[in-house]
From TrEMBL:
It comes from the Eukaryota. Pfam families: BTB. InterPro entries: BTB/POZ_dom, Leu-rich_rpt_Cys-con_subtyp, LRR_dom_sf, SKP1/BTB/POZ_sf. This is BTB domain-containing protein.
């Protein structure tokens, strides 16, 4: 019996040269479920008794070794030369035990599974790899880029694993772009990723960015291949350049790898833009339509089309049809008429768009897509696009559609009905400059858009005309709604929105100047789940505060208990409250409101009537963001708040003149001991870890020293009027705050040495603003390269700047997208050419009082095709009357334009109508009057222009407002 038992088992001898103990142990697979791996790995020698038949059946290695004609077949002991931990996991899988696989253990286990021929372990590895490399399931992001590189290199040596490698390519780019190992990805792996049908990226821009990152990291390796046919830069030809955002393509025209493709991309984009909507179906005459198909896979979670003005509903729909319909000519012909109908619908944006997919073949459904961004896509017909979302993105939860004036409240209503799962909607547009508290109106004349025809689905822009559209509207699941800048939103619109969005938790009405305090208070009363309210620069006032501080009641019968406790109010539960610029709130109301806001995380009181007593009675301890800029609060009151809120990260106290004065507590209420904190900056330095700060009055070198412990990770600092850092503080700023990304200095004394230090030391700097600063500053201070800089403002600091200096700036700050110059009077008409050639991807340019920049015209500026914001004032009278019309047509992303009649060569500017303004929504035209010099001998030669007023044109979804204000805005 003993002999027969011995034949059933074989001893596997494993050695561990890195063992912690020089010992030997004997274990048996009969007890494999109770093995303690850590104890086993401590031994140098491990003898494992295993069932011979089990090994032969489960492993091709042991099948050949123990059941063949080898001499080892009769051995009772077999030596295993393999990593002990890995081999033990192989045995566990052989015996049906669960094996935990991670990105670090996968490769070793997969290699062992191949070597020992354990099919069950191979299947386990393949399953894990497929799930971990997918965007679905709990394995998301488990495989890091360096792991995938090792796996790929291993796969090249083992043909059997080639299929497995392809399973993991679908989601490489989105994981890899931000990874430090992305530059190490082999060319063949990258190429297979792009060609793989399951390649998953948010947008074509993300893919292009990834490839440019890889090419930059592999410059040296590419140099020997520069003349070879297999030049790695050819990988860029896999991009679908027709789908790149306009600003991205424009900005890459200076890229050493992307220049030619960027030019082709720009050419294609503008060719598509020139095709009228009714004729855009002509793209179906193209034999190859892949270049117009948006990359969508079963793994897609986000679709980002932002900044692509060439995108139409047809292009979107084309990407959602099965590929066979785009390849087969007869099938394409059969759907042509249906798509023509769709484009006819697009030409008439006021129609409902119901049934637009009738007659089309079934479009594909991508259930994983949860977020879509169609911001700045003005050619999309929104009604039909929503129908497409309904069919193809049934799980859609987030929609960003910013800067689309044609996205009316009725469109929002349809979105709620058609996409019931949607929970977050962002409809932001530019905030009107006509904020009542900030301008003095001389005259105003709204130009109403003609009413819609009887064929229209609604009347006007409010919801009251939609009874026939949907007699019993369903309740929406929207919890987060952003309507920032929507001056066409009225109280009636809010009333209907709140009737549908009963679960609303976050509302942003910033700059919605047409809503009243009553409308906002009604919204607050209706939405009992609100925890975030952003209403800066609106009529938010006493009624709204009373609604916040009143007990929460259900919308219906009045509550029987009129005496509500503080904890029953919305104010008590608020997490975000932004009421900056709301001048309808008096001191008493602010006091009542602040005393009840227990849970606030973000608070903006900019420019309000808040006083110290309101801060002293603030009970919260969770503040992370606080803006009390341009208020009368004192340093003591602010120190009190800081002392009780150690999580504070962002603080804006610019324009607070009372920070340098001692505070007071007029209410006589006894305060906690924290009121004894007199030094604001000392408290901040001891209590907080700040990320963003903005100070003015009283901020000095000593203040910065006191803050030093709290600002080592600071990302943004702004010092304004009343602050004085001095040369010593500015010199130490880069070492004190090495992570700075944004630096704004106004009314400071600076020098060349200071700026040079900034340029050399602040390697993360993305935004630099120097405004109205004094000191010995020359343009030589900008001769150091700063590759990450994206925004540069030089206002009244470099009066001696010349065109040669501009050339240096374009070379050393090559990544700029926003550029502002004021007071550079030595510049001439050649400067625009240098600016447009040096920064073709600019999205914002401000030039004021800059010599003769526009004296001979502005044609060179049209080379910056992606501009969204232009300000040209007092630069020479060479701007033609047609400039606004030309700019709107040649720069399809342009939204804001500011000019001065002094620069009009024909004395005036033509104003676009609603049909030819594209995205343009705000036009400001300043007007001057000439004031004589006080010197009687030079009255004729010293007549200087002085501001008179500003004509402001603001378009919204409903009308055009023409307003004249006193201010120069």
């Amino acid at each position: 019996m003993a002999s027969e038992s011995d034949d059933e088992f074989v001893t596997l001898l494993c050695t561990n040269p890195n063992a912690a103990e020089d010992t030997e142990t004997f274990i048996s697979t009969t007890d494999i479920h109770n093995w303690e791996l850590s104890a086993i790995l401590r031994c140098q020698t491990v003898k494992i008794q295993a069932h011979r038949v089990r090994l032969v059946e489960q492993s091709s290695y042991f099948h050949g070794l123990l059941s063949g004609s080898f001499c080892e077949s009769n051995l009772s002991c077999v030596s295993i030369q393999w990593n002990m931990e890995v081999f033990i996991n192989v045995l566990k899988c052989v015996y049906g035990c669960k094996v935990d696989i991670t990105s670090k253990t996968f490769l070793s286990l997969f290699e062992a599974a191949l070597y020992f021929g354990v099919e069950s372990l191979l299947l386990t590895c393949k399953t894990w790899f497929s799930e971990a490399s997918s965007t679905k399931g709990p394995g998301l992001l488990e495989i890091q880029v360096d792991d995938l590189i090792h796996i790929w290199n291993f796969g090249l040596e083992h043909v059997a694993s080639t299929k497995l490698m392809k399973c993991g390519l679908a989601n490489l780019q989105m994981q890899a772009i931000s990874g430090k190992f992305f530059g190490d990805v082999p060319y063949n792996l990258l190429f297979h990723c792009i060609k793989h049908p399951d390649l998953t990226v948010y947008s074509e821009m993300h893919l292009a960015d990834a490839l440019l990152v890889w090419l930059t990291a592999n410059t040296e390796r590419l140099e020997p291949l520069s003349k070879a046919e297999d030049d790695c830069t050819g990988i860029l030809n896999q991009l679908r350049i027709s789908l790149l955002p306009l600003w991205f393509a424009a900005g890459k025209r200076r890229s050493c790898y992307f220049t030619e493709l960027a030019e082709k991309s720009m050419e294609t984009i503008f060719r598509l833009l020139k095709i009228p909507p009714a004729d855009s179906i002509g793209i179906f005459d193209d034999g190859d339509l892949d270049h117009l198909r948006i990359r969508l896979t079963e793994y897609s979670k986000k679709v980002n089309l932002s900044g692509c003005p060439q995108i139409t509903s047809v292009i979107l729909l084309l990407s959602l049809l099965p590929n066979s319909y785009c390849v087969d000519f007869m099938l394409r012909k059969s759907i042509r008429q249906s798509l023509i109908n769709l484009e006819r619908l697009s030409a008439n944006r006021d129609q409902c768009g119901s049934g637009i997919l009738h007659g089309l073949p079934p479009i594909l459904s991508f259930e994983g897509v949860e977020e879509v961004d169609i911001s700045k896509c003005p050619r999309l017909h929104l009604e039909s696009t929503i129908e497409i979302f309904l069919k193809s993105f049934p799980s859609l939860r987030k929609l960003r559609a910013t800067h689309l004036l044609n996205f009316k409240t009725t469109t929002l209503h349809k979105l709620m009905l058609k996409c019931p799962r949607i929970s977050e909607v962002d409809l932001t547009i530019d905030i009107t400059p006509l904020i009542p508290a900030q301008v003095s109106v001389i005259s105003s004349s709204p130009v109403i858009v003609p009413p819609l025809t009887n064929k229209s689905c609604f009347v006007g822009n409010n919801f009251l005309g939609m009874a026939s559209y949907h007699s019993q509207p369903s309740v929406s699941n929207i919890t987060r709604l952003i309507l920032e800048g929507r001056s066409d939103i009225s109280d009636l619109d809010l009333q209907y929105i709140t009737g549908l969005c009963v679960s609303l938790k976050y509302i942003n009405l910033k700059g919605c100047v047409s809503v009243t305090d009553t409308g906002i208070s009604n919204l607050i009363c209706r939405c009992s789940k609100l925890h975030s309210i952003l209403v800066c620069d609106t009529s938010f006032g006493i009624n709204s505060i009373q609604a916040l501080c009143s007990g929460i009641t259900s919308f219906g019968p009045a509550a029987s208990d009129l005496e509500k406790r503080c904890s029953d109010t919305l104010a008590f539960k608020l997490q975000t409250l932004h009421i900056g610029g709301c001048m309808g709130v008096d001191e008493r109301s602010l006091f009542d409101l602040m005393s009840q806001t227990q849970a606030l995380v973000s608070l903006c009181l900019r420019g309000t009537h808040v006083v110290d007593d309101a801060l002293y009675h603030f009970p919260g301890s969770s503040l992370e963001i606080l803006d009390i800029s341009n208020t009368m609060v004192s340093g003591d009151a602010l120190a009190y708040i800081v002392n009780g809120n150690p999580a504070l990260k962002c603080l804006n106290a610019r324009g607070c003149k009372n920070l340098i004065h001692q505070g007071s507590n007029t209410s006589g209420t006894e305060l906690s001991s924290s009121y004894s904190c007199r030094d604001l900056y000392t408290v901040l330095g001891k209590k907080c870890m700040l990320e963003e700060i903005a100070f003015g009055w009283g901020f000095s070198w000593l203040s910065l020293l006191a803050l030093r412990p709290a600002i080592m990770s600071l990302r943004a600092i702004s010092v304004g009027l009343g602050g004085s850092l001095g040369e010593d503080a500015l010199r130490l700023l880069p070492t004190t705050c090495p992570m700075l990304e944004s630096l704004i200095l106004c009314f400071q004394v600076i020098s060349d040495a200071i700026i040079i230090n900034f340029m050399r030391s602040l390697r993360h700097l993305q935004a630099l603003s120097l405004c109205y600063c004094l000191g010995d500053v020359s343009t030589s201070s900008f001769k150091n390269s700063i590759a990450n800089l994206r925004k540069l403002r030089l206002e009244r600091v470099t009066p001696q700047m010349t065109n040669n200096d501009l050339v240096v700036l374009t070379q050393n700050c090559a990544s700029l997208v926003e550029f502002s110059l004021v007071g550079c009077r030595l510049l001439n008409s050649d400067s625009l050419r240098l600016i447009s050639q040096g920064w073709p991807g600019l999205i914002s340019v401000h030039l004021e009082d800059c010599g003769e920049v526009t004296a001979t015209g502005v044609s060179y500026l049209f080379n910056c095709r992606a501009l969204e914001d232009i300000l040209l004032r007092h630069n020479g009278p060479g701007i033609p009357s047609s400039f606004i019309l030309d700019a709107a047509s040649k720069m399809p992303m342009l939204r804001q334009l500011a000019l001065d009649l002094c620069d009009a060569c024909e004395g005036d500017f033509d104003i676009p109508n609603d049909g030819n303004r594209y995205l343009l929504s705000i036009v400001k035209i300043a007007r001057c009057k000439f004031q004589r010099s006080t010197n009687i001998y030079f009255q004729e030669t010293h007549r200087r222009p002085v501001h008179k007023d500003t004509l402001v044109l603001v378009w919204n979804a409903q009308n055009l407002n023409s307003t004249v204000v006193k201010e120069r805005i």
